[in-house]
């Protein structure tokens, strides 16, 4: 990376993480749609056309021989002498693509046990619907969770409602209804979240898109998080308080299984 890359100096860039399952990119179309949206919102050009980018992703996965894992792509506004306004004339956006293997048994083991989450104030900016590389508040919340022995941090707004996780969307289940915050500007519209919403419809399960408080979450029957890397991951405690007896519940297990049948 160039020292004057604007991603490095200003977090002036966006990224995507896409799961690789059995050698294929999961929900590639939706990830590229969201990448294009993030870029549009920040007035950054696509670094190359979509077909070429799709080819690059496949080549990186192939050359790294990844069957299970993830591909990371990052696009920044490019390299230019440090100055706050956009470079004029425009420069070529910088693209980085990497792929790494992850042992699929790791995720299976984690899902069997479930994860612990802590809560932390959501002190991010107001456009978290854009998937920018500016993740410092997420990093600090996640580090705080790790120091408390938890695997994820749920971010909480000024009204005491959970927005989302540091790198996941947050869900609770109560009396058979699946509750998650509506995808406005207060959260990232997760691709996994969108697929799960479709799974619920197909499985005849009830969805409530609304805010929920930490207090309500602690009294939930089940809880879970979704992301490209965690898929559907049971949450078994919130701030040390056990959820659903401290074990992954039946609905979360069913959803995790159903997810594979629905994702592309
Ligand atoms: N994170 N919310 C936030 C803040 C995220 O960073 C992510 C993804 C999600 C879930 O989105 P999706 O289902 O599209 O992965 C929600 C990625 C995995 C990361 O930063 O590593």
Automatic annotation (TrEMBL):
GO biological process: amino acid biosynthetic process; branched-chain amino acid biosynthetic process
Cofactor dependency: pyridoxal 5'-phosphate
Protein name in the entry: Probable branched-chain-amino-acid aminotransferase
CDD domains in the cross-refs: D-AAT_like
Catalytic activity, reaction form: L-isoleucine + 2-oxoglutarate = (S)-3-methyl-2-oxopentanoate + L-glutamate; L-leucine + 2-oxoglutarate = 4-methyl-2-oxopentanoate + L-glutamate; L-valine + 2-oxoglutarate = 3-methyl-2-oxobutanoate + L-glutamate
Family: Belongs to the class-IV pyridoxal-phosphate-dependent aminotransferase family.
NCBIfam families: PRK06680.1
EC top class named in words: transferase
Known function: Acts on leucine, isoleucine and valine.
């Amino acid at each position: 990376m160039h020292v004057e890359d604007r991603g490095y100096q200003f977090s002036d860039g966006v990224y995507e993480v896409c799961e690789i399952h059995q050698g294929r990119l999961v929900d590639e179309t939706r990830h590229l749609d969201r990448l294009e949206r993030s870029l549009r919102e920040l007035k950054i050009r696509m670094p190359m056309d979509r077909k070429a980018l799709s080819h690059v992703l496949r080549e990186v996965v192939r050359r790294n021989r990844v069957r299970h894992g993830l591909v990371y792509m990052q696009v920044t506004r490019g390299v230019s002498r440090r100055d706050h306004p956009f470079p004029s004339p425009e420069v070529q956006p910088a693209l980085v693509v990497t792929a790494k293997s992850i042992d699929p048994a790791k995720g299976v083991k984690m899902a069997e046990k479930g994860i612990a989450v802590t809560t932390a104030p959501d002190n991010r900016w107001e456009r978290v619907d854009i998937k920018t590389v500016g993740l410092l508040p997420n990093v600090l919340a996640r580090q705080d969770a790790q120091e408390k022995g938890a695997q994820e941090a749920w971010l909480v707004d000024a009204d005491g409602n959970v927005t989302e996780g540091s790198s996941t969307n947050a869900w609770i289940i109560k009396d058979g209804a699946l509750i998650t915050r509506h995808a406005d500007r207060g959260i990232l519209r997760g691709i996994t979240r969108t697929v799960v919403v479709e799974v619920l419809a197909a499985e005849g399960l009830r969805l409530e898109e609304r805010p929920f408080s930490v207090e309500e979450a602690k009294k939930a029957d089940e809880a879970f998080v979704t992301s490209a890397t965690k898929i559907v991951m049971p949450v078994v405690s919130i701030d040390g308080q056990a959820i659903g007896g401290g074990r992954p519940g039946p609905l979360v297990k069913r959803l995790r299984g159903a997810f594979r049948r629905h994702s592309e």
